[in-house]
Amino acid sequence: MIAIITGDIINSQMSDSELWLPKLKDLMASWSESPENWEIYRGDEFQLKCSVDEVFRKALLLKSLIKTFENLDVRLAIGIGNEVFLSEKITESNGSAYVNSGRLLTEIKSQGKTLAIQTENDKVNRDLNILFKWAAIDFDNWTAATAEIIHQLLVNPALTQDELAKALNITQSSVSQRLKRANFDLLQETDQFFRKKIAEL
């Protein structure tokens, strides 16, 4: 089994792509090679292949990165399944993971959602999508400042609040308040729950 994230940038026309596009490329390049494992196409859409247990964390990293830019958000459709054809370009590869992800993106666009998952298991789909709906209440409302702190901590979990405060030129109490508002501890618990749930597949 593999995981495919198909995503598109919300409100991309309201922001200069020269600001966010290099950052998005750098993030995905830090994980794997392009175009075999990730690709950006049509200007503001992308596809990424990763391991099943890492996919929720990578979705959070993508979300927190894009939300650091004012007015921007990202829609993410996670497909879990097989890969029956591997091409040199991810957008030309195929299998149920790709189909699940691509169809799901179209579906959540029409529903106004920003995160959903489709696997071969209806019970897992139901449980995780309810979880994602709750989680989205938080991360869809992250401010750019909150998203920046979340992203920094996801990239480097060893960072202390004092180190973050110095890096962002704010007080340690401001870091603490933003993490509380973002329910960061709950996000980490959600990631652990996701890994256990996905292991049932």
TrEMBL record:
It holds the Pfam family SatD. InterPro entries: Cro/C1-type_HTH, SatD, WH-like_DNA-bd_sf, WH_DNA-bd_sf. Residues 159-201 form the HTH cro/C1-type domain. SUPFAM superfamilies: Winged helix' DNA-binding domain. This is HTH cro/C1-type domain-containing protein. The lineage of its organism: Bacteria, Pseudomonadati, Bacteroidota, Flavobacteriia, Flavobacteriales.
